[in-house]
Design a protein that fits this description.
The protein has strands at 2-3, 7-8, 23-24, 27-28. By secondary structure, it is an all-beta fold. The chain starts with a strand and ends in a 15-residue tail after the last strand. The relative contact order is 0.15.
Length: 43
């Protein structure tokens, strides 16, 4: 991934805080946006 002002970086691990941020008890909170992870491996 090319980050402006930083250069090329390789991402090895990504951590998402799903529960407590956009979900409660594992269920998406109504009205919260949903972002698909489809195609993320192509970055």
């Amino acid at each position: 991934m090319d980050i402006p002002g930083v250069g090329q970086k390789q991402i090895r691990h990504v951590v998402f805080d799903y529960n407590g941020t956009i979900a409660k008890d594992g269920i998406l909170i109504p009205g919260m946006p949903f972002f698909s992870m489809t195609g993320l491996n192509a970055i």
